[in-house]
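S2.1 Query sequence (Dihydroneopterin aldolase)
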Amino acid sequence: MDIIFIDDLRVDTLIGIYPREKAVPQTIEISLRIGASTASAGASDDIRDTIDYAVVAERLRAELGARHFNLLEKLAEYVATLLLEDFGAQWVQVSVAKLGMMRGVRRVGVVIERGAA
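Output structure tokens follow.
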């Protein structure tokens, strides 16, 4: 299996359980490892034969910008499911982090791995 990756994609979304977090979007960082065969694209040199990371990034910005999640865990599950079901990934690793949420801590977050059923 090959891996397509996107590192440190910044997305604005409503994330959190506190009233301010439900009202004011926060910037989160998402890093992805997307397992998929890239052999066809390597042979054809055609973007239609692979998962287009630009389309993934655009879709995530649109989808997450329109939703609220209480927990990073739920947001990560949403992203994993989207990649598996809508983009045909065989396996994904999703890392999601809030920035500057705690004094003296640069990032807090969660990393999940999921595979296609």
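The chain has one domain: 2-115. The beta strands are 2-15, 26-36, 68-69, 91-102, 105-115.
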